[in-house]
């Protein structure tokens, strides 16, 4: 499955139960996660895709095109934010991601390409 996510991915932010309601960074992260989830759901529906089966090893590849500065956030937190957004929509549990690759580069707009496949699936 290949998804194109438009807009900025707010990198993962650590938060407490209280912090998610009062910390502006946490609120931005949760809003970004919701926006990404909506785009993923829409693409799943448009392509008539079903959530990947449970307990199947997965391979994930992410490419982040950044419309602004490239090195303002840790790439691992950008990956975590994207995986968190896809959990429960594209796959049941991100613990089953056995291979993960990511790259980022400067572009004209914020765009993320997320590719998810079963491990061993060459197509």
What would you say this structure looks like, in words?
The protein is of the alpha+beta class and 123 residues long. The protein has one domain (2-118): Holliday junction resolvase RusA (60s Ribosomal Protein L30, Chain: A). The chain is built from three helices and four strands. It has helices at residues 19-22, 24-46, 75-86, and strands spanning 2-6, 58-66, 97-106, 111-118. The chain has a four-stranded mixed sheet with strand order 1-4-2-3, with helices on one face. α2 (24-46) crosses α3. The longest helix is centred in the first third of the chain and has 23 residues, at 24-46.
Key terms:
alpha+beta; single chain; 60s Ribosomal Protein L30, Chain: A; 4-stranded mixed sheet; 123 residues
CATH topology: 60s Ribosomal Protein L30, Chain: A
CA gyration radius, whole angstroms: 14 Å
Helix content: 25-40%
What is the end-to-end distance? Answer: 10 Å
Annotation field: number of helices: 3
Structural class: alpha+beta
Number of strands: 4
The tally of domains stands at 1
Biggest sheet details: 4 strands, mixed
- The level 1 CATH classification is Alpha Beta
Order of helices and strands: EHHEHEE
Explain briefly what this protein structure is.
The chain has 123 residues and is α+β, with helices and mostly antiparallel strands. It has three helices and four strands, in the order E-H-H-E-H-E-E.
Give the arrangement of secondary structure elements:
Layout: E1 2-6, H1 19-22, H2 24-46, E2 58-66, H3 75-86, E3 97-106, E4 111-118
